[in-house]
Amino acid sequence: MIRSIAIFSASFLISTGARSEQSFDFTSNKFEAYSEEIGHGWEPDSNESSRRFSVRVPEGNHRVTVKLGNPKAATTTIKAELRRLMVENLSTEAGASKEVTFIVNTRRSTYGDGREVRLKDRERQSEWIAWDDNLTLEFIESAPTLQKLIIEPALDMPTIFLLGDSTMCDQPSEPYASWGQMLTRFFGNEVAVANHGESGESYSASLGRGRIAKVIDVMKPGDYLLLQFAHNDMKERGEGKGAFLNFKEGMLKHIAAAREKGGLPVLITPMHRRRFDDAGKVTNTFGDYPEAVRQAAKEQNVSLIDLLGMSAKLYEALGAEGSAVLFKDGDGTHHNNYGAYQLAKCVAEGIRSELPEVARWLVPDLKSYSPSTPDPFGSFQVPASGRLSSKKPDGQ
CA 108, CA 256: separation in Å to the nearest integer? Predict the structure, then answer.
């Protein structure tokens, strides 16, 4: 992990104990740059419109309560860790304050037996926030509003684990985004979302790098595991490689591992790439891989969310040219914030349809969504994060 360290005196900290509440009062205390010695503070890349505050915490789920307010009317969006959307455009009137509570999952690369996930160089260099000892919150504001922050353990909180590729993982920097880091917006404070996806990953990579082993290590009975692969699996060549060979075998291993731990696996077909035929219909670039997902779900009696079908409706609703607004410029695979947000709504709708026991945790203000009538691009207002990069995610 690479971090600039500056040492300052502590301003206010209730406790740094492994499982204690930590509380910070920003109205009467001035907090300085992050210090490893103190274990909290503002990240050095914070600015007036995007400020990131980090607090050292143990691995696991945390209940975060934020009190916001300003003498002037303001709007605040809060993201956690690697740009997971937690609070979207919360307005506070002049002189008034509001409290909001949400759940953030943090993780380490080590397993219970001392082994480690085989992190990629990019994870160590630009995605270390996802693996460090801190809970990091980003406040994107029209005016400074943060008054108080409370972080407390949520030990018995059910967890929804995500495991997949670049179209699901927490993308570290603008202008890329994934549905996994938008999905957190649509769940309330009764469940955690733990995104263990990574760019360029396949089922075989998940096994080889120890990502599924890490998930199983921290999984509790009754937790869920959402699996969405195929983008990179289909590029693997050689003997024993194929949709109904190593791809399906890897899928079955993940399903079995989750069930052995008491978890509930869920399969998701991959979303389409932006490819259209002359008739304006989306073309399947995955061959038999989506069918292998459907086949495994049926054979194993596993719930299935058909993101392939929903993404076709979404892209076709916008058209061959218009669908470009869903993607990073010039990229037909990786999405921007708007596209990731629409796909997250597709996944939430799939949850509502196929997983009613999970749907009860969705936020009350999430209305029924049809990918054939997406949110108007012109009215999309989720602000960009302060982290920018031209580095492309792994995978195509």
Answer: 23
Write out residues in the chain with pLDDT < 70, as ranges.
Answer: 1-19, 396
Q: Does residue 213 sit in the same domain as residue 289?
A: yes
- Global pTM reads 0.94
Cα torsion through 262, 264, 270, 271, rounded to 10: -140
Return the pLDDT at 3.
42
- Give CA–CA dist 8/15, Å, rounded: 17
Q: How many domains does the chain have?
A: 2
SS3 content of the chain, % helix, strand, coil (to 5): 25, 25, 45
CA angle 289–295–298, rounded 5-degree value: 145
Asked if 183 and 307 sit in the same domain, the reply is: yes
Helices (H), 209-288: 211-218, 248-260
> What pLDDT is recorded for position 19?
65
- CB 182 within 8 Å of CB 167: no
pLDDT of residue 73: 95
Give the count of alpha carbons within 13 A of 158, CB side only: 17
Q: Tell me the per-residue pLDDT of 197-214, one tens digit each, with 9 for 90 and over.
A: 999 999 999 999 999 999
Residue 9 lies in a domain: no
Strand order in the sheet with 40-42: 40-42, 50-56, 134-141, 74-80, 84-92
CATH code of residue 73: 2.60.120
Q: What is the dihedral of CA 121, 125, 127, 131, to 10 degrees?
A: 80
Q: Is there a single domain that holds both residue 253 and residue 124?
A: no
Query: Does any domain span residue 384?
Result: no
pLDDT confidence of residue 49: 82
Distance CA 314, CA 243 (A): 25
Residue 4 resides in a domain: no
DSSP conformation letters of 194-207:
EE---TT--HHHHH
Q: Using the structure block, give the residue that is written with the tokens 């979404």.
A: 314
